[in-house]
Amino acid sequence: MTRVFTFLFFLPILLLAKEFSLASYNVENFFDLNYNKTEYKEYKPNTNTNWNKKTFQIKLNNIVKVLKDLDADIIALQEIENKELLKLLQKKLPSYKYISFRKYSNASIGLGFLSKIKIVGETAINIKFSNKTYRPILETTFKLNNNEFKIFNNHWPSKRVAESFRIKFAKKLFDRLENLPR
């Protein structure tokens, strides 16, 4: 009798549950062809760095192929220059109806989401350093079957800098998670 009761108690929850897939993909410095003085030196368009229309198109096609192969409901992207590039990916992948993006105005790259699941909000968890600019943590709220949930897109500094930089990111994220409603 207990097993039947337990199943019946959780049945409404099971009926409301829906699986979805999530992927994360570092696009490894996806820059456009507009020079705005925040690019890494090797991505200054149409210079001797070889970042031009041809190499841009190759990179774009490769990213689109990977994203199609992933075919996840939500894809977290790292190292993307701007929201316009995210919109370009969205145009090439029309099943992703929703996007979310954040970066600091003086930063070279930012973070984004492409999503088949409705996005209802986004915010940045800011992590500032006196002598370096990295990127915020992107907190995005999604809604599926009237249930809201959050996903945090992180791209912390590499091991080329001191561990204390990553610890600061971890602490900020931990503090945010601690302040969320249970």
What structural keywords apply?
single chain, 182 residues, alpha+beta, three-stranded antiparallel sheet, four-stranded mixed sheet
Protein topology:
Elements: H1 2-16, E1 22-30, H2 53-70, E2 74-80, H3 83-92, E3 98-102, E4 110-115, E5 118-125, E6 137-144, E7 147-153, H4 163-179
Parallel strand pairs: 1-2
Antiparallel strand pairs: 2-4, 3-4, 5-6, 6-7
Look at the structure and give the mean pLDDT.
Answer: 89
The biggest sheet amounts to:
4 strands, mixed
Strand content: 25-35%
Question: Helix share of residues?
Answer: 25-40%
Number of strands: 7
Order of H and E elements: HEHEHEEEEEH
- C-alpha Rg, in Å? 19 Å
Q: What structural class results from the helix and strand content?
A: alpha+beta
Task: Report the uncertain regions.
Answer: 1-15
Strand arrangement across the biggest beta sheet: 1-2-4-3
**End-to-end Cα distance:** 31 Å
Number of helices: 4
Shape designation: flat
How would you characterize the overall build of this protein?
33% of the residues lie in helices and 27% in strands. It has a four-stranded mixed β-sheet with strand order 1-2-4-3, covered by helices on one side. The chain has a three-stranded antiparallel β-sheet with strand order 5-6-7. The chain is α+β, with helices and mostly antiparallel strands and 182 residues long. Helix 2 links the parallel strand 1 and strand 2 (74-80). The longest helix is centred in the middle third of the chain and has 18 residues, at 53-70.
